[in-house]
């Protein structure tokens, strides 16, 4: 399957999922090819006019020489130098953007061309789209900073490009904000993938201890103006619709059970905001310089210098996802601690029968303490950009924070999957010790989890590591008990 890009406003989260996570390549529609060609022709007329305007990277050099208008001869030399520059990358480090993230960056780069607002030639646009037909190049996370996204973008193109750049096209490769767009798309889709997973685990936790259901009463939604709260309550009740109303705790459950609607609503808020931000970014053109196609007043079009390469909204959206994930991570740790203590639910201490000789389950709580601490650190916002010591003639003095926010997203996501794995081990053992049964809607989900959890019923040190590693891998896939993620995203991309 090939994803065909035609109009910016038609691009959906579904298509982003297909390109990023399913590996479908991109091609340009006939309409997009026509827009690109028409725009490039107009740009070259403007470039070759008697008095071409200041055009950053075309009639001027980039960086420190941006103030100096170049002669025709100097412009030709600039193109030659830019072709050499384009074949050099300066990335470093061992921590990489996942392949699906790189593919989404390439998608964002190609999308910026299809309406003619970035005056590239059709061969160049097709060349960039062609990069999605092959395995993506490694993109290091370390030192991926600076004004805009020049350094990380230098890594995603082959050293031998196989195409000669024309005037202005170096800016079309390295300027704008395709990295921010691709990374917020990646983070939003990843969060959506695990959204239902978290709801199902938390519903299992409710029934495992027979928590009173009043904390999830639909009446609560009627006194809240938050639609995400109503949705969280509705989803929990859908999972718990047939559980017994009797034989439950006679007293209220610990806070970590009662606040589930609030915590899940906050997560829903963060995911919805990230999806909206991602769609706005992929459907917009944030290029510097920006080419405005011809109109009655400007028959050859015009070029506008912008700051579109600094997508602060993307960083803030990823920060929000990180905070929501850290909340869930910490919540899972508190629930595990309550299960191991057992006092609130009449469970045996450490979830093992007294006198069984089984030891080592206390490590579950210990591990989650560290996971929660790391998750909280990863949730510290990255949105306040730092100033730069600028060697480029005072052109570039603010760094983009998006890669830092995304790196923290990868870290907190890993901690979240580990914390949920620990909670699942504790929940499976709780069900084994009690007479309670999982909700029927979650029976298959419970059984799949249980297959990966070694029972705590042997007279020796429990081998927790095997269960935890297996479960973490399973949960990271986030598709157990449900169809492909593509089915969870509506056709309109929302």
Task: Describe what is shown at a glance.
This protein is mostly helical and 494 residues long. The protein contains 17 helices and 4 strands. Helix 13 packs antiparallel against helix 14.
Features:
two-stranded parallel sheet, mainly alpha, 494 residues, Fumarase C, Chain A, domain 2, disordered C terminus, Fumarase C, Chain B, domain 1, 2 domains, 17 helices
Can you put this structure into words, describing what you see?
The protein is mainly α and about 500 residues long. It has 2 domains: about 5-185 and about 290-305, Fumarase C, Chain B, domain 1, CATH 1.10.275.10; about 195-275 and about 310-485, Up-down Bundle (Fumarase C, Chain A, domain 2), CATH 1.20.200.10. The chain is about 50% helix and about 0% strand. It has a two-stranded parallel ribbon with strand order 1-2. It has a two-stranded antiparallel sheet with strand order 3-4. Helix 8 crosses helix 10. The longest helix has about 30 residues, at about 400-435. Mean pLDDT is about 85; it is low at about 485-494.
Helix content: 40-55%
**Shape, please?**
elongated
Taken in chain order, the helices and strands follow as EHEHHHHHHHHHHHEEHHHHH
Number of helices: 17
Radius of gyration: 27 Å
Q: CATH fold name of the largest domain, please? A: Fumarase C, Chain A, domain 2
CATH superfamily of the largest domain: Fumarase/aspartase (Central domain)
How can the largest sheet be summarized? 2 strands, parallel
Kindly report how far apart the N and C termini lie.
Answer: 22 Å
- Main sheet: strand order: 1-2
The CATH level-2 architecture of the largest domain is identified as: Up-down Bundle
